[in-house]
Design a protein that fits this description.
Layout lengths: L35 H7 L3 E6 L14 H10 L2 E4 L5 H4 L9 H12 L4 E8 L7 H4 L7 H20 L3 E8 L13 H6 L2 H15 L4 E6 L8 H16 L6 E4 L2 E3 L5 H21 L3 E10 L7 H20 L4 E6 L8 H5 L21 H12 L7
Helix pairs in contact: 6-8, 10-11, 11-13
The structure holds ligand G3I.
């Protein structure tokens, strides 16, 4: 099926999965010696991180901040924009795209031979769509107008970046963890429902980026309280398969949360259910991607040495589980340095101690979590790349 910007009302009728999967050509960059990517590459794995746009020299997790850029080029084999490819960043108005920031980011990545994932083509929650989209007047033929808006958005982004982006989070966080149902947005209401909207997003992406890995990305995790969320995600993935929707992989965000200092006991308690979930996902034929790994240091003392040790042990245990799946070969961190992590702003600790979720501290010094990631990569079974 060929979906173009001009494809009209018939788009939803008779959608069939486009034949063929996503071939994954890998950009090969000699990994910097001594960094995480050097270990990852020896196993056919890519280690990566999110990065941001910034004014030259600004104190941000940006390519234009030499201190942060040094971590990216030392440890990473793949990058992802933290915010700059989202609708909220790209779409100031219904008729305008603003690509300036992401263009600068991808140009820098390319100059450093670092491939970039696309995050994301549709964040399916009203809260994270631009205000104008939630208040949009879809007119007299709302379904047609909503389809057109989605086609325009995804096609414009995919065509602009072409084969420079080899993997997209096509849909982000569509499942409501409170009741395992799909969220609705103004767009999905106009378009005839959430299922139709998500399916269409993947079909458009396949047509516009036939080379790319297409990912459904969500934060269902292994900690207690996620059973309902996992069930909703499994149901969604089963539906995609049944309807022939072109989805290649599950993005497991991995904003993991420590459960206390006795990490070994906690991991032992979590791993059974988690493996059952991952087994169900992979047995449907989906690949896995760790898209946003970081650690919320909950139920841990403020003491830095004890906290860091527990965060490291928890990270190691988690990665060992995940890397035991041969379907996983990309591991991306949601930030290299504690200095720029979203967690501090969104979920500060109640004891006011600064969060320590990333492999490097606020002064760009490697923490025990860095060594834990290195050890997990070292212990991983080598992947066979096609
Ligand atoms: O850029 C604007 C700035 O112009 C404005 O003055 C300021 C005022 O609030 O906001 C700035 O935008 C913020 C943006 O981050 C860039 O810093 C947004 O308010 C803020 O909501 C946004 O937060 C991001 C969040 O997603 C929502 O988009 C976080 O940085 C980012 O880490 C977080 O990432 C998400 C993934 O995309 C999906 N999975 C969960 C993950 C963590 O929440």
């Amino acid at each position: 099926m060929h979906i173009t910007r001009r494809t009209g009302l018939t788009m939803l009728a008779g959608l069939a999965a486009t034949a063929g999967g996503a071939g994954r050509a890998h950009m090969h960059r000699p990994a910097a010696p001594g960094g995480l990517q050097a270990i990852a590459a020896s196993k056919g794995i890519r280690l990566g991180a999110c990065f941001a746009w910034g004014m030259p020299g600004a104190d941000r997790g940006s390519f234009a901040n030499p201190a942060y850029a040094a971590l990216l080029t030392r440890d990473c084999g793949i990058l992802v924009p933290e915010n700059e490819l989202k609708w909220q960043a790209l779409r100031p108005t219904p008729t305008r795209f603003d690509f300036a920031r992401f263009d600068a980011m991808i140009a820098w990545a390319q100059a450093n031979a670092l491939p970039v994932r696309g995050h994301n083509l549709l964040w399916h929650q009203p809260k994270w769509m631009p205000r104008w989209a939630e208040n949009h007047d879809f007119g007299a033929t709302p379904r047609r107008a909503a389809e057109q808006l989605l086609v325009d958005h995804i096609t414009t982004v995919c065509e602009r970046y072409g084969t420079r982006i080899q993997s997209y989070d096509v849909v982000n966080e569509a499942v409501n963890p409170a009741d395992a149902t799909l969220y609705q947005t103004a767009l999905s209401r106009a378009l005839g429902g959430s299922t139709a909207t998500l399916d269409l997003a993947f079909h458009i992406a396949r047509a516009a980026a036939p080379h790319a890995q297409l990912v459904y990305n969500d934060y269902m995790s292994w900690e207690p309280g996620n059973a309902q969320h996992r069930a909703g995600v499994l149901r969604l993935l089963e539906g995609f398969k049944a309807r022939g929707v072109p989805v290649d992989a599950l993005g497991v965000q991995s904003h993991i949360i420590t459960q206390g200092v006795d990490t070994r006991v906690h991991i032992a308690a979590l791993e059974g259910e988690w493996r059952r979930f991952l087994d169900a996902v992979t047995s449907m034929g989906y690949a896995l991607v760790i898209t946003e790994l970081d650690v919320r240091d909950a139920a841990l003392p403020a003491d830095i040495a004890r906290r860091d040790a527990a965060v490291a042990a928890y990270t190691r245990g988690y990665l060992d589980q995940m890397l035991s799946y041969p379907q996983l070969d990309d591991v991306l961190l949601w930030g290299m340095s504690d200095r720029y992590s979203w967690i501090e702003g969104f979920e500060p600790r109640t004891d006011k101690a600064r969060r320590r979720p990333c492999p490097y501290d606020r002064a760009f010094k490697a923490k025990p979590m860095y060594a834990a990631i290195a050890a997990a990569l070292t212990a991983a079974t080598p992947r066979i790349r096609g």
